[in-house]
Write a structure and sequence with these properties.
With 540 residues, the chain is mainly β. The protein is built from two helices and 41 strands. The protein folds into five domains: 5-113, Immunoglobulins (Immunoglobulin-like), CATH 2.60.40.10; 120-217, Immunoglobulin-like (Sandwich); 312-396, Immunoglobulins (Immunoglobulin-like, Sandwich); 404-487, Immunoglobulin-like; 496-540. The strands form nine sheets. Strands 20, 22, 23, 25, 26, 28 and 31 form a seven-stranded mixed β-sheet that branches. Strands 1, 3, 5, 7 and 8 form a five-stranded mixed β-sheet that branches. The chain is elongated, with a radius of gyration of 59 Å. The protein starts with a strand and ends with a helix.
Length: 540
């Protein structure tokens, strides 16, 4: 609120003192004697003299408190300005004018108040028909509040009156309130709440002494009587269309929202119109549809179930843990199929001749402690009055390699130049990998086998050694090994045995050694003794 200048002329003197002055020296003070100003505004007190050029002025409070204002002297005038007015300005002020030996004094009482804003009306909640609501009228920043009176009315009918006559313990701005609880009725629609606040300081003339706030009543009625109409029917054929219309009563008129309940419990919002039309309907459109009428104070809902009839389709099989298993483990095969009415589930196993062997009518087929014989094609069928939908899954039961055989044909002992076949086989285990290796200290050599067989034409001596067969699949592996012995032929003139090579190398070292021994022995005989150490020293 903008500050304003307050100048009010009083009717009587509060304090005046006149010292001996001549008839010509006179003094006036404006406003006269008493004035009231609002906290935050600006007020000026003025002293004016005649009969003295120029006089001197001074200002003080009657109880010698700080002025809390600014003094400005101009010729015969002196002005005390308080900007802004505060609690510290509530005093009796005295103006003293001096002209030579003559002195004049006049006083003025400054009163303060605060009544800056219109009342505020607050509601505890929306005005809902038939439900209690509390109305509070608040008057902010009032001083002195013991002069405050508040009236709360509904149109011209007084609901409550209050005067705040409790004593003030200190000077402060206070917010005072008046509360009333009532139950809205149909008669309250269109009426208004009125809060009147009066500051009863009758001995002063100021504006405004009364403030008022009006709030029109908005009475709400929560939505009710929600209804749904469906055309042509709630049971529909796939590809058809349907129109659903919803209405709801309330004040203000409820807004209509359409939604669909999902399988996970959530709700999918579809439309904010009263009419919902679905075309080219599919099985996924079946379900529960919800219409809600909503306004500021509540909501009311209605449900309708749509059924789209179709033949079974989208049949699926879920295998846990896997369709490829280790022998002895368990497996769950779960089948689902979409259709209306809900399809019946039938599990079968496909035989070698193509016929189906019925197994179960439950959605989940469980096999425990599986064997290789359980491998095969399993069939799930979703069946209702409209048709059949079929899905297959192949189950593979694996076992670790076993019954592995590693042989050398014609024998594990052959002669140089012969032909030998090394063959590895693994009995009754499908999808088994066969790896043939020749072992050596420098590293194994993988042999290029065919169907687990490796042929060596014209065996050489270096072909002798250890051969290993590794049979493995996803489940495990098994090893077998054999030792191939290759003998040299007797009529081979160029045959040079390793033993002769070793003997030859040894003899080439022994002969020089014998010569050295004979040499040192002779020298020892000449000297009468022999020392190998001394002999070595003599050569250094």
């Amino acid at each position: 609120m903008p500050r304003k200048m307050v100048v009010i002329f009083g009717a009587s003197n509060v304090l005046w003192m006149v010292f001996t002055v001549s008839q010509a020296f006179k003094m006036e003070i404006f406003p006269e004697h008493r004035v009231i100003a609002q906290i935050g505004d600006v007020i000026s007190l003025t002293c004016r003299t005649t009969g003295c050029e120029p006089p001197s002025f001074s200002w003080r409070t009657q109880i010698d408190s700080p002025l809390n204002g600014k003094v400005k002297n101009e010729g015969n005038n002196s002005t005390l300005t308080m900007d802004p007015v505060s609690f510290n300005n509530e005093h009796a002020y005295v103006c003293t004018a001096t002209c030579g030996s003559k002195k004049l004094e006049k006083g003025i009482q400054v009163e303060i108040y605060s009544f800056p804003k219109d009342p505020e009306i607050h509601l505890s909640g929306p005005l809902e028909l038939g439900k209690p609501v509390t109305v509070t009228c608040m008057v902010p920043d009032v001083y002195p509040f013991d002069r405050l009176e508040v009236n709360l009315m509904k149109d011209n009918k007084l609901l409550k009156n209050k005067e705040f006559l409790e004593p003030m313990e200190r000077k402060s701005l206070e917010t005072k309130s008046l509360a009333v609880t009532f139950i809205p009725t149909n008669e309250d629609i269109g009426k208004a709440l009125v809060c009147q606040a009066k500051l009863n300081i009758d001995e002063f003339d100021f504006e405004p002494k009364e403030r008022e706030t009006t709030k029109k009543l908005q009475v709400y009625i929560s939505p009710k009587n929600t209804v749904i109409s469906v055309s042509p029917s709630t049971k529909l054929q796939e590809g058809g269309s349907v129109t659903m219309t919803c209405s709801s009563e309330g004040l203000p008129a409820p807004q209509i929202f359409w939604s669909k309940k999902l399988d996970n419990g959530n709700v999918q919002l579809l439309s904010g119109n009263a009419t919902l039309t679905l075309i080219a309907m599919r099985i996924e459109d079946s379900g529960i549809y919800v219409c809600e009428g909503v306004n500021q104070v509540g909501k009311d809902g209605k449900e309708v179930e749509l059924i789209v009839q179709v033949a079974p389709r989208d049949t699926t099989i879920l295998v846990s843990p896997s369709s490829i298993l280790e022998e002895g483990s368990s497996v769950n095969m779960t089948c689902s199929s979409n259709g209306l009415p809900a399809p019946k589930i039938l599990w079968s196993r496909q035989l070698n001749n193509g016929d189906l062997q019925p197994l179960s009518e439950n959605s989940t087929l469980t096999l425990t402690s599986t064997k290789m014989d359980d491998s095969g094609i399993y069939v799930c069928e979703g069946i209702n009055q409209a048709g059949i939908s079929r899905k297959e899954v192949e189950l593979i039961i694996q076992v670790a390699p076993k019954d592995i055989q590693l042989i050398a044909f014609p024998s594990e002992s052959v002669k140089e130049g012969d032909t030998v076949i090394i063959s590895c086989t693994c009995g009754n285990v499908p999808k088994t990998w066969i790896i043939l290796k020749k072992k050596a200290e420098t590293g194994d050599t993988v042999l290029k086998s065919r169907d687990g067989a490796y042929t060596i034409h014209k065996v050489q001596l270096e072909d002798a050694g250890v051969y290993e067969c590794e049979s493995k699949n996803e489940v495990g592996l098994q090893l077998r090994s054999l030792t191939l012995d290759v003998k040299g032929r007797e009529n081979n003139k160029d045959y040079f045995s390793p033993e002769l090579l070793v003997l030859y190398c040894a003899s080439s070292l022994i002969i020089p050694a014998i010569g050295m021994i004979i040499y040192f022995a002779r020298r020892a005989n000449m000297k009468g003794s022999y020392s190998l150490v001394e002999a070595q020293k003599s050569k250094v």
